[in-house]
Amino acid sequence: MTDELFKDDSYVSEFEAEVTAVKGDWIALGGTAFYPGGGGQVCDTGMIGGFKVTEVKYEGDEIVHKVPGHKLNVGDKIWCSVDWERRYDLMKGHTAEHLLFNSLHRQDPELSIVKIFISPENKFVIINHDISWDKIADAMEFANKVISENHRVSRFMMNRDDPDIEKIRVKLERIEEEEISVVEIEDVDLAACCGIHVMETEEIGAIFVDKKLSAGKEGIEIHFKIGDDARTSSMRLAASCLSIIDDLGSKPEDIVKTVANMKAELESAKKQLKASVSQSIKNLEPVNINGVDVYSGVFPTSDRSVLTDAAETYRKKGAVIAFIGVGDNLAVMVGSGCGKVDCKTVLSDTLNEFGGRGGGKPDFAQGGVQDITVSDKVLASLMNRIKNALENA
């Protein structure tokens, strides 16, 4: 069983150890300060006997280290060093995650943690449901106050049968051990965790939530930065927001209302445009080719549903349609209710001509073209192929 030095002192970054096992690139040591990852935190890297450590993990009771190309043998006593700058960033990030979630939970007691991820490149916590930016701002204010007050961070062990376990943020069903590792942020948070942490909140420097993303069925990812990265990110974002405020002719204190009004106006404009396009399609006069009505047109919309709904209506009447919607790109669709036009072939041949992509079935196909300036040419190409198909049917 490996002696886990990081549990006694997470600040140990250099140590001497004896090689106890070798299996290809993987080696085990009698004792190690390399954290093998856990609790959402990635593993340490560094050097062992002058060779790079690229991965560390548990293998039963042992901790094994991946050291590609090493020349080590069982019994060798070697000097080891953890990449301290990386390790310290992970320690601060993990402690910051505890503090941030506690702060978010104070704003919304219904929140729960689904998953966390702490690496040098990315730090986030997945929570079970969304939370407003106003509440995130209040949570950040509380968290940074705790950082500036410099609360002590400590770790202790608790038996799972201890009556005080109800005071701990813990999911007992995920823990098999009788003894549970608990991390305490003095007067703020108690949480079960096997990760490594700093000793004082002041070491985190600062916390800044820079984005939230959907995590699908899992919930919402709350991404955050710490220390100098947090300060830099917040200042750059503030500068960008102030620039936008100036462009909109608003004031900082009025920007939320201004944007809300703009969103309402945009939604109204979208509805009006949708109604206008829908009416234009209803007013289309078909071209009859060899006994088949063909409806075609280019419309100023990125809403494909308007076009597909109309296409389905005309298809059911036995007609052929060729519609193009102009938005950020060209939405191109071909439909046929007569069986004389292979829409998939017509669309594919046309899109190949203009560098587009798409697909579908013989009775309906759709795709896109990036260059919106060629809408008329794309429609002409579609109509030419449809005409040929109908005349030769």
The overall number of domains is: 3
Helix fraction bin: 25-40%
What is the CATH class designation of the largest domain? Alpha Beta
What do we call the CATH homologous superfamily of the largest domain? Threonyl-trna Synthetase, Chain A, domain 2
Report low-confidence residues grouped into runs of 5 or more: none
Termini separation: 79 Å
Q: What integer value in Å does the Rg equal? A: 31 Å
CATH topology of the largest domain: Threonyl-tRNA Synthetase, Chain A, domain 2
What spatial form do the alpha-carbon principal axes imply? elongated
Structure annotation, total helices: 8
Mean pLDDT: 93
Sheet/helix structural class: alpha+beta
Q: How many strand units?
A: 22
Strand % is 25-35%
Structure description:
It is a single chain. The chain is an alpha+beta fold and 393 residues long. The chain folds into three domains: 80 residues, Elongation Factor Tu (Ef-tu), domain 3 (Beta Barrel), CATH 2.40.30.130; 161 residues, 2-Layer Sandwich (Threonyl-tRNA Synthetase, Chain A, domain 2); 108 residues, Diaminopimelate Epimerase, Chain A, domain 1 (Roll), CATH 3.10.310. It has eight helices and 22 strands. A seven-stranded antiparallel sheet has the order 6-5-9-2-3-8-7. The chain has a six-stranded mixed sheet with strand order 17-18-19-20-22-21, sandwiched between helices. The relative contact order is 0.07.
